[in-house]
Amino acid sequence: MNWLDIALVIPLLWFTYKGFRNGLIIELASLAALILGIYVALHFSFYAEEYLRENFEIADKYLYIISFAITFLIVAVLVYLVGKIIHKLVSIVALGFLNRLAGGVFGFLKAALVLSVILYFLNGFDPGMLKAEVKEKSYLYSPIESIVPMIIPGLDLDEMRMPTQEDIRIPV
Q1: What is the helix (H) or strand (E) element at residue 32, kind and residue range?
Q2: Is-above-0.85 flag for pTM?
Q3: Contact 136, 5 (CB under 8 A)
C-alpha cells in the first residue's frame, strides 16, 4: 500500500459513509437533481432569462449565467425535495437499513467512477504525472483506473483536446 492507495481510499470511504448515512434514495435524488438540473437549465433557462430581462436591469453578459443558475437551483431543489419525501415514506415502511446499505454501495460505486474519471484524464493529459512504479505498487490503481474504459470502450483522449483560453474567454 502506497500514497496513491491512501489517496484513493479516502474518497472511497467518505462516499461510502455518506451514501450509507443518506441512503440510496437520497443519493439517487441528489444525482438526479444534478443531472435534471443541468438538463433543464440548458434547455429551458431562456424562460428565466426572458423574465429577468423584462423585470430587472441586468447586463446582457450576465443574464445567461444568472438564468442558468436560477433554473438549475429550482429544479435541483425540487427533485431533492421529492427524494426527501420518498425517503420518509421508505423509512415509515421500515426499509431504512436496506436503504442505507444500498446507499453505501451506491456511494462506493459513485466514488470509484469519479476517481476513475480523474485518473483517466490525468493519464491522458499528463501521462508522467503518476510514476509507473507508484502505479504498479498500488493495489487500487488498476481496478479503479479500468472502470471508465470498461464503461465507455471507445473513449479516446487523443481525439479530445483541452479548451484553450480563446475557447473559454468571456466577452466583456
Answers
A1: helix 24-55
A2: no
A3: no
